[in-house]
């Protein structure tokens, strides 16, 4: 199949809109046409009667024709809306018998694609979802027998999307393997003529690994998808791939790459007109806070129009409070906007932001004190004693706070800064002296041998005589030690 075939088909892919059937064709029996248009007129007010009218059209044609095909399409859609799923499946099976001779290949493909999209979008209960698999199964059976590879692939991708939505990962993984193989050349490399479809398949597999937290497979597949250059994908597909990449980078605490991917994902979703752009914009704001960045994510030209969007206002206020170190304002926003945590990804990562906020607040509060109570911090931050103790423990382990927690009395003692500096100075002095001695004893040009003077420094038995008069030599307890005029800081 040529590249043009696949590219043109990709451009016709319907992601967000349902296109009306082109039913203005002229020709055919006048009575059949009148019956068809009469049924279309009454379908809004009396859908049940319209279904009967549409179903009566095929019988009026001496052989299977275009009007019968159109009548069955309208009837199936109405039956599905009326929740008559078994009837819809039965008449869809009849519709598929028309595609071999009654209508052109391009028209049948477009009609079947639109039909499957319609059914997928209007499936709002368990029975409807169960019937979708029957629609896909009948389609695959019909078009596999006619060697229509393009529609076979696209229908399989729709079926794979259904299994992903149902979290049926076992069947999905098997289906994805078949789809990858169908989009590859005999040597196993991706077929450049099917690049657009390959990216759709990659996007589904990347989503599956993102959901199942298989970051190793996700990373390899993500990099492979970005290397596909032969495709002109729908921006929604790239939005999906970049969104999953952002989540992957965030889980690895690679904040910069995560921010870049979420921004690219937002732009692609925005171009596609997808509502997912709002959710990804929230992820972008979340990443900005995790980066501890002072840059406002709404300063860019692409995101600025959404700064005052009611759907994003809670995240806007949250990042504002975060960047002002307003711990109470931050907590109040989270408390009043519980729907923010309805997204599992935000709920999972917002705790890290909250801990960063509390950590900064604790360090600011205790700066003037050498002793304070856990209750004091709990009252100031409006959190529990256990949470205060957890933050202090983290600060001590991280080396940001030098002190001891008396759990029994609920008191924290912080080491005096002066004492700490003195201890550190002594340590630095000792290190410097040790380094000096090591250099003196190891560099031959600072000594000359004296066979009459034994040494016990661990090397051969030989005497050492310091040539530089600035440091003397004396023997104490069988070991050579240096003596000089240096003193420890602080007069010690």
TrEMBL record:
Residues 251-419 form the PCI domain. Residues 1-31 are annotated as: Disordered. One of its GO terms (cellular component) is cytoplasm. Its main location: cytoplasm. PANTHER family: 26S PROTEASOME NON-ATPASE REGULATORY SUBUNIT 11/COP9 SIGNALOSOME COMPLEX SUBUNIT 2 (PTHR10678). Component of the COP9 signalosome (CSN) complex. Belongs to the CSN2 family. It comes from Microthyrium microscopicum. This is COP9 signalosome complex subunit 2. It is found in: Cytoplasm; Nucleus. The keyword Oxidoreductase does not apply. Keywords: Cytoplasm, Nucleus, Signalosome.
């Amino acid at each position: 199949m040529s590249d043009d075939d696949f590219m043109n088909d990709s451009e016709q892919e319907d992601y967000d809109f349902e296109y009306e059937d082109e039913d203005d064709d002229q020709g055919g029996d006048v009575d059949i046409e009148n019956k068809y248009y009469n049924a279309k007129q009454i379908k809004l007010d009396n859908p049940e009667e319209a279904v009967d009218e549409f179903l009566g059209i095929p019988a009026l044609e001496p052989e299977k024709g275009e009007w019968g095909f159109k009548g069955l399409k309208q009837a199936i859609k109405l039956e599905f809306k009326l929740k008559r799923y078994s009837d819809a499946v039965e008449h869809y099976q009849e519709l598929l018998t028309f595609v071999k001779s009654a209508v052109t290949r391009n028209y049948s493909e477009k009609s079947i694609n639109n039909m499957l999209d319609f059914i997928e979008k209007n499936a709002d209960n368990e029975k409807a979802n169960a019937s979708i698999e029957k629609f896909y199964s009948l389609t695959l059976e019909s078009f596999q027998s006619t060697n229509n590879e393009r529609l076979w692939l696209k229908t399989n991708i729709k079926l794979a999307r259904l299994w992903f939505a149902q979290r049926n990962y076992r069947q999905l993984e098997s289906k994805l393997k078949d789809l990858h193989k169908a989009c590859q050349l005999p040597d196993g490399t991706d077929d450049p003529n099917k690049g657009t479809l390959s990216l759709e398949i990659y996007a589904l597999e990347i989503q599956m690994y993102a959901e199942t937290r298989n970051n190793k497979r996700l990373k390899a597949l993500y990099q492979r998808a970005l290397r596909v250059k032969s495709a002109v994908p729908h921006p929604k597909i790239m939005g999906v791939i970049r969104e999953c990449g952002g989540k992957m980078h965030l889980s690895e605490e690679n904040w910069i790459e995560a921010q870049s991917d979420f921004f690219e994902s937002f732009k692609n979703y925005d171009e596609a007109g997808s509502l997912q752009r709002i959710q990804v914009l929230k992820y972008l704001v979340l990443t900005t806070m995790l980066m501890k960045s002072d840059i406002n994510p709404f300063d860019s030209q692409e995101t600025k129009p959404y700064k005052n969007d009611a759907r994003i206002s809670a995240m806007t206020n949250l990042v504002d409070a975060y960047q002002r170190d307003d711990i109470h304002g931050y907590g109040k926003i989270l408390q009043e906007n519980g729907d923010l945590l309805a997204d599992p990804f935000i709920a999972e990562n917002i705790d890290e932001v909250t801990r960063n906020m509390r950590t900064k607040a604790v360090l600011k509060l205790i700066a003037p004190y050498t002793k304070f109570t856990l209750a004091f911090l709990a009252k100031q931050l409006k959190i529990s004693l256990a949470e205060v103790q957890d933050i202090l423990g983290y600060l001590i382990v991280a080396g940001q706070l030098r002190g001891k927690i008396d759990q029994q009395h609920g008191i924290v003692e912080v080491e005096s800064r002066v004492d700490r500096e003195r201890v550190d100075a002594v340590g630095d002095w000792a290190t410097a002296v040790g380094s000096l001695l090591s250099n003196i004893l190891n560099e031959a040009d600072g000594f000359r041998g004296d066979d009459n003077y034994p040494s016990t420094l661990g090397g051969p038995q030989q005497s050492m005589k310091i040539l530089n008069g600035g440091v003397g030599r004396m023997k104490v307890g069988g070991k050579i030690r240096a003596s000089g005029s240096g003193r420890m800081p602080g007069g010690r």
